[in-house]
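>> Question from a student workshop board

For tomorrow's exercise we were told to take the sequence and the ligand below, predict the bound structure, and bring the output to class. My setup keeps failing. Could a helper post the expected result so I can at least see what it should look like? The ligand is zinc ion.
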Amino acid sequence: MARSTKPMRAAFRIGKQRIEAGERRRLQLEVASLYDYTPLYLPVEVIHSRREGPALFVSAAIHGDELNGVEIIQRLLARPALSRLRGTLIAVPVVNIFGFNDKSRYLPDRRDLNRCFPGSPGGSLGSRLARLFMKEIVQRCSHGIDLHTGAVHRTNLPQVRASLDDPETEELAKVFGVPVVIHSRLRDGSLREAARKKGIRSLLFEGGEALRLDEGVIRAGLAGCLAVMRHIGMLPQLRSARTKAPPEAFVSRESFWVRAPHSGLFKLLKAAGDRVTKGEPLARITDAFGGQEKLVECPEDGIIIGHATIPPVNRGDAIVHIAGFRNLGRVKRAIDLMEELD
Ligand SMILES: [Zn+2]
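>> Workshop helper replied:
Here is what the output should look like for this input. Compare the format with yours to find the bug.
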């Protein structure tokens, strides 16, 4: 029998391991040890297709208490469509393994891992973990999606944050298929900044709050990862006529927090995804008896993209996050459509 002369796709190397074309493997990268010398590992799953294509990392829990992304990755890895993958998918459901085990956003020394990039082999614990993640995962990829939630006691409408100065990144951000895309500049020490410096296009997805799972957010994030994978040619396009088009995406270049003008117990009068107009009440703040009511007015027209979820507030605490858009009516309709698709 004639043997195929087509060359095999080169193996994918990660850590000390070699993953052959056509192989799917779960592996552990050694990070550090606990005080009692118990070794700690970064869990990774690699699907290295026989067919050439992009290399995409999907990561979650860089902030250890942000769990929606962990669930999104679990569901992504269970998709039957991955049998038709082109390229290489590297899934890292828990990047900040320390914070995850502690139900904390931070590293044991209170550092924020998303300010430790690109890291260095001789730096702090966070810096070393960031360096390992960059070297073994990010730098072997052409694209990346990093999954986040709001901080503890804050919830976010599903949204994509990306640096839209690069037109291809903007296209990916819109393809993700959530209505709200926030142009956010790169921050020093963030994974997105470090990836960009290496020429890797990456998006950040945010939705829901820390330490909670939110079904609507999880579905939006999973659909977004799959849409990006189809767009960059890692998965076949959907052909079914029954497939609903995702909502249109709109870019906001300005967002701001409304802060509590008084201390007390705040009660939100609106919800994430609501359209709000200048002068209308967003929340009321009362004393413990329900008296001394004061209203918090909306300072500018916009869409609520996030808010605090814990009622006691001090004067100055950030309570409602609002994004401005050129066409608020269309953005609101797209948000309603996203909620119907849940
Ligand atoms: Zn985060």
